[in-house]
């Protein structure tokens, strides 16, 4: 892989992918709508080309994809826009990849897996999503599979890390940085997965760099499942955070959803805070090698440091 396009380069995982590709000597086109943010993130990097455009406009994506080997799809849309924008974006991307003879690497979440009772979910687990957003993500995968384009589907749990602002854990960390009372979404006693974005990016770029990894799905788990209580302990002991933390429950999300479109769409995904999907990384470790696993302590510190630098 000599040249790559990252769609959604101004987001959390997009930022980590651009950084990892750049660190490996790959020429990168960093694509997103916000030109100012792209410049603030990448203006001093000689191998990174900034391209301000709309992922729903085929002409712009086609121009940005000129000469690339792999297109990384890390585009995020507001929940309330998923049903209209995600299918259109995927169809646009497939057409562009065919024209440019490029491969597609899709950053995916865990929604398509739906409810599962297994302790760890492998790539061959049956996908029967019961939520609207899970069905949309599954449809995106199916679009890739039925088109004659080499693809990677990479499932990751909830993200956190530098520049990862539209995430559940960021909801907590944003007030920790300001030394204000913070919110934590979900049950404090349920162990869930949060993956450090740079770990996910390292694993995904490694997969994208190989020839025998395509036309498959891959799970990239976090360092390990962690409870809210353990996260709060890290904030208290290692960062000296002393303010109160309010628990945002399902009922609170439902109430807020009566007034806010995003919260209304979030209600159906709250089952994951009580019935988390835990990913198995066995396939990756057997076929590729050791998974990147930044400890939560180190990952949270690095995230907080990045946030402090941006204040």
TrEMBL record:
GO terms for molecular function: aldehyde dehydrogenase (NAD+) activity. SUPFAM superfamilies: NAD(P)-binding Rossmann-fold domains. PANTHER family: NAD(P)-BINDING DOMAIN-CONTAINING PROTEIN-RELATED, PROTEIN YEEZ. Residues 4-220 form the NAD-dependent epimerase/dehydratase domain. This is SDR family NAD(P)-dependent oxidoreductase. GO terms for cellular component: cytoplasm. InterPro entries: Epimerase_deHydtase (IPR001509), NAD(P)-bd_dom_sf (IPR036291), NAD(P)-dependent_oxidoreduct (IPR051783).
């Amino acid at each position: 892989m000599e040249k790559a396009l990252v769609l959604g380069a101004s987001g959390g995982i997009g930022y980590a992918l651009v950084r990892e590709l750049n660190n490996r000597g790959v020429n990168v086109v960093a694509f997103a709508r916000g030109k100012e943010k792209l410049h603030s993130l990448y203006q001093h990097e000689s191998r990174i080309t900034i391209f301000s455009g709309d992922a729903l406009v085929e002409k712009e994506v086609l121009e940005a994809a000129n000469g690339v080997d792999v297109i990384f799809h890390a585009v995020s849309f507001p929940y309330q826009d998923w049903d209209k924008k995600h299918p259109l974006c995927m169809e646009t991307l497939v057409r562009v990849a065919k024209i440019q003879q490029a491969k597609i690497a899709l950053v995916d979440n865990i929604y398509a897996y739906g409810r599962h009772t297994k302790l760890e979910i492998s790539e061959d687990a049956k996908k029967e999503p019961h939520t609207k957003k899970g069905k949309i993500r599954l449809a995106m995968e199916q679009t890739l599979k039925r088109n004659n384009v080499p693809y990677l589907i990479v499932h990751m749990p909830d993200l956190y890390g530098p520049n990862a602002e539209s995430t559940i854990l960021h909801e907590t960390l944003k007030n920790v940085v300001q030394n204000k009372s913070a919110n934590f979404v979900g049950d404090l006693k349920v162990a869930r997965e949060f993956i450090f974005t740079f770990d996910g990016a390292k694993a995904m770029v490694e997969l994208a760099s190989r020839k025998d990894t395509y036309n498959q799905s891959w799970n990239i788990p976090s360092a390990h499942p962690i409870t809210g209580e353990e996260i709060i302990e890290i904030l208290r002991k290692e960062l000296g955070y002393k303010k109160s933390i309010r628990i945002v429950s399902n009922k609170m999300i439902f109430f807020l959803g009566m007034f806010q479109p995003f919260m209304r769409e979030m209600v159906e995904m709250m089952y994951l805070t009580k019935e988390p999907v835990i990913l198995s990384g066995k396939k990756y470790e057997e076929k590729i090698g050791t998974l990147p696993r930044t400890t939560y302590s180190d990952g949270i510190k690095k995230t907080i440091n990045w946030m402090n630098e941006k204040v």
